[in-house]
């Protein structure tokens, strides 16, 4: 059975003066209606670039995109990568929609929020401006903005950060899209407002049975909302598994390191954080072998310098759990156990 | 030597702005910091947390005398620095330094790393033993950068490395107190831990005191000995890290902690959240009574009329609330 969105072998690269930046490299993932997929990675890991390609938002003159991204509509699958621009444009906002990190720069400062939401609605609905405003009010009410009759005529600068993000969500959902891509939707917000927004998105997802792709670097947010997780590093997916597998049985040293390096509010104590040494790789000169090899604590445990010379495949290490590492599951577990006993 | 390196007593910083538009003559006052008491002991790290707009950055900047305090007193190592002039302040400046949030904006792009760090020596007329160049290279080495990179420019470094340059600059004059304003929030997750560990090590080695201003409670929990929670210019709760995170007594602290996501899906599924409604009110027009009354779920009539006094509810734990949460 095929899922609602299936991305297959998607690569995105940008030719620059310094060389070709391979921002996303052979990415495959899928997400179904009602499901939340979290894409986790540091800046420059390729998480946004991949999803902008799915939305058809890259400049075709400056970007090389290969691979496929199928959206399985009732009328049949559409590959948004090879489909004509016009087809993708008509899907944007209706089939798939996106919200961005910074709502202030994504909203137009000269138009009232009602105008902007009504415009998005008007693209796919024939109706008067009054109908559009009525729909805008309905949406603002849905996303929990109080005093809608007054607020609908206000401008973005009159809203707080959290309220702006709600306006963005209202605008993205005005045509009932089936897929919502949320690119760091709560990164610019305070934690108290973040939990409001995440709760809102969760509720709307249930109500409309949406597929959500959540792009984030915050593993706490991932634990709160995701069903499945893709971890990206150096433009590649390095681990792809269910939420519980990712957190309780990570099979890629980068994921292991990431989980160990974050302090947690529920674990008191002034233990030293186990930081991952070094820097993320440059996407212009990716190492020939595994991109994480220079920072990996286990690379020396792999025989024959394999990590330096050969990039590992994204293998299915256990049922429905994919990871990109030369170490077998048993080897990794042994090394981790050894580390733990060493720490004690 | 005084008992505390820094002591703030009823510190206030009010900004005047125009109310009702640019051309309006009516003046309004933003009470960014409105009566903050805070002490930092020698070698101690005090975390200052709160949502954006709560005044935590303003406290840090007022301590550095970037802003002139409106009211209250600031004692640095027992000496009153509240109203010192620029000139009289200079000897204190070398003892307190700041690390900034944005490692891209806080380093001059036209200066080399060496020049950036050397400027501290020049301004304060310090001639370190073995010469400035050697001192700078030692500093670079100390913060985990290659001492040979002394002639490189900031753009040649990554975000985490730039933050290390900022730290090296802050350390140059061997300060006693460092005000760190969101020092890791602009960094990637895997780099954050590196910088937090570096700050930890430097404290142990050099006996530094930190005022650690941040919104990320997990980082604050990790690095701080004590934590001060601010809301709308006022201190809501002060406690040791352990009591604050195990047994928060102010409803706002409790809500703030419950909003922090924990990277553990099983715990997340079990957790009961307190979701605060609405946003932070405008500091230009704070609510009467307790400032938290617009979002609190425990309000009674008293909360809208009487400003709660700060009381010690447990040893070392003070809160400003009429109806505190029970101890855990």
TrEMBL record, chain A:
Residue span(s) of domain ABC transporter: 5-259
Gene3D superfamilies in the cross-refs: P-loop containing nucleotide triphosphate hydrolases (3.40.50.300)
Annotated GO biological process: peptide transport
Membrane-related topology note: Peripheral membrane protein
Record keywords: ATP-binding, Cell membrane, Membrane, Nucleotide-binding, Transport
Keyword Repeat in annotation: no
Primary subcellular site in the record, as a coarse category: membrane
SUPFAM superfamilies the UniProt entry points to: P-loop containing nucleoside triphosphate hydrolases (SSF52540)
GO molecular function, one term: ATP hydrolysis activity
UniProt KW Transport keyword: yes
Subcellular localization, as worded in the UniProt entry: Cell membrane
SMART domains, alphabetized: AAA
Coiled coil (UniProt feature): none
One GO term describing the cellular component: plasma membrane
Descriptive protein name: Unannotated protein
Automatic annotation (TrEMBL), chain B:
SMART domains: AAA
GO function terms (MF aspect): ATP binding; ATP hydrolysis activity
Domain ABC transporter: 6-257
GO BP: peptide transport; transmembrane transport
Keywords: ATP-binding, Nucleotide-binding, Transport
Coiled-coil stretches noted in the UniProt entry, renumbered to this chain: none
Stored SUPFAM superfamilies: P-loop containing nucleoside triphosphate hydrolases
Keyword Transport tagged: yes
Family of this protein: Belongs to the ABC transporter superfamily.
Protein name: Unannotated protein
Protein's organism: freshwater metagenome
